[in-house]
C-alpha cells in the first residue's frame, strides 16, 4: 500500500518534470512562446555562466569557445608572476641592479650575460693584441675605442708588436649592476691567465716575459640600451682592481 502510493508520487513528479522540460524545450525551439517560457532556461544559462566565471577566477579555468578571451588573463598573470619571481637574485653582487635590469629587459639573464662577456673578453683581448681595430669597433663604446685605438696606434708608431696569449679565463663574475635611465650597466671581474709580451722591430722583448704566465684581473663594465632592439652589449669602461 505504502510503496504503491510512493510509486505514484514519484511517477507524478517525473511526469510533471518531463512536462516542464518539454515546455521549456518547445518554448526554445519554436520561439513563439515569448519571454515567460523562455526565461527559466535563460536564467539557468546565466547562472551557469556566472558559476563558470567564478570558477575561472579561482582556478584559472579551462579554455573553451567563448571563454577564449578570458584565457589570456591567466597567461598574462603567469607572466607577471615570472616577473616577480625572476628578479630574485638573492644576495649576489649587484642583485638590486640585476633586478632593475631584468624588469626593463625580460630577456636578460645574468648567466647568459656572463657567457657572452667571456666571449667578448677573448675577442677584445685578441683583437687588441693584433691591432685589429675593425673587430674592436662594434664591441667598444666610443671612449673605450678611442683609448684602445690610441694604444694600437702608439705601438705601430714605435714599431712594436704585442703578443698576448690568453691561456684561460679563471673566473668571470658580475660584481656590480645598475640601470640608469634605460641603459643597463653590468660590471664583470675577469681573472685570466695571460702571456703578455711586447717585441720591438728586431723581435727583441721590450716588455713582459714569454715564459711567464701572469694572472691578470680586469674590471670591465658593459652597457646596453634596453629600449633598443640591438641585443649587443658594448664595453664602456675598463679598470684595474684597486
Ligand atoms: C701587456 O703588456 C702591455 C705592454 O707591454 C701593457 O700595455 C698591457 O696592459 C699588458 N696587458 C695586460 C693584460 O697586462
Ligand atoms: C635607446 O634606444 C631607443 C630606441 O632605439 C632610442 O630611442 C634611445 O634614444 C636610445 N637611448 C640611448 C641613451 O641611446
Ligand atoms: C650584434 O653583434 C653581432 C656579432 O658581433 C653582429 O653580427 C650584429 O650585427 C650586431 N647587431 C647589431 C644590431 O648591431
UniProtKB/TrEMBL annotation:
Residues 31-94 are annotated as: Disordered. Residues 94-240 form the Tim44-like domain. Gene3D superfamilies: 3.10.450.240. InterPro entries: NTF2-like_dom_sf, Tim44-like, Tim44-like_dom, UCP031890_Tim44-rel. Residues 34-59, 66-91 have a biased composition (Basic and acidic residues). GO terms for molecular function: protein-folding chaperone binding. GO terms for cellular component: mitochondrial inner membrane. The chain crosses the membrane at residues 6-26. It comes from the Eukaryota. One of its GO terms (biological process) is protein import into mitochondrial matrix. Pfam families: Tim44. It is found in: Mitochondrion inner membrane. Keywords: Membrane, Mitochondrion, Mitochondrion inner membrane, Transit peptide, Transmembrane, Transmembrane helix. PANTHER family: MITOCHONDRIAL IMPORT INNER MEMBRANE TRANSLOCASE SUBUNIT TIM44. Belongs to the Tim44 family. This is Timm44 protein. It comes from Symbiodinium necroappetens. The lineage of its organism: Eukaryota, Sar, Alveolata, Dinophyceae, Suessiales.
Amino acid at each position: 500500500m505504502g510503496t504503491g502510493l510512493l510509486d505514484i508520487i514519484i511517477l507524478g513528479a517525473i511526469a510533471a518534470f518531463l512536462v516542464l522540460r518539454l515546455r521549456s524545450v518547445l518554448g526554445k525551439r519554436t520561439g513563439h512562446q515569448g519571454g515567460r517560457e523562455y526565461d527559466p532556461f535563460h536564467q539557468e544559462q546565466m547562472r551557469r555562466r556566472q558559476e563558470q566565471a567564478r570558477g575561472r577566477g579561482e582556478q584559472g579555468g579551462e579554455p573553451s569557445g567563448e571563454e577564449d578571451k578570458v584565457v589570456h588573463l591567466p597567461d598574462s598573470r603567469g607572466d607577471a608572476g615570472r616577473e616577480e619571481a625572476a628578479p630574485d637574485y638573492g644576495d649576489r653582487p649587484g642583485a638590486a641592479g640585476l633586478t632593475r635590469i631584468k624588469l626593463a629587459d625580460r630577456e636578460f639573464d645574468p648567466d647568459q650575460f656572463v657567457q657572452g662577456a667571456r666571449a667578448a673578453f677573448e675577442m677584445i683581448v685578441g683583437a687588441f693584441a693584433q691591432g685589429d681595430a675593425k673587430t674592436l669597433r662594434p664591441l667598444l663604446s666610443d671612449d673605450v675605442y678611442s683609448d684602445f685605438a690610441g694604444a694600437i696606434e702608439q705601438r705601430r708608431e714605435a714599431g712594436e708588436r704585442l703578443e698576448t696569449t690568453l691561456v684561460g679565463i679563471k673566473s668571470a663574475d658580475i660584481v656590480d649592476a645598475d640601470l640608469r635611465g634605460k641603459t643597463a650597466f653590468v660590471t664583470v671581474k675577469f681573472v685570466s691567465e695571460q702571456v703578455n709580451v711586447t717585441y720591438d722591430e728586431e723581435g727583441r722583448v721590450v716588455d713582459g716575459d714569454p715564459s711567464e704566465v701572469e694572472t691578470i684581473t680586469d674590471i670591465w663594465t658593459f652597457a646596453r640600451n634596453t629600449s633598443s632592439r640591438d641585443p649587443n652589449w658594448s664595453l664602456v669602461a675598463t679598470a684595474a682592481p684597486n
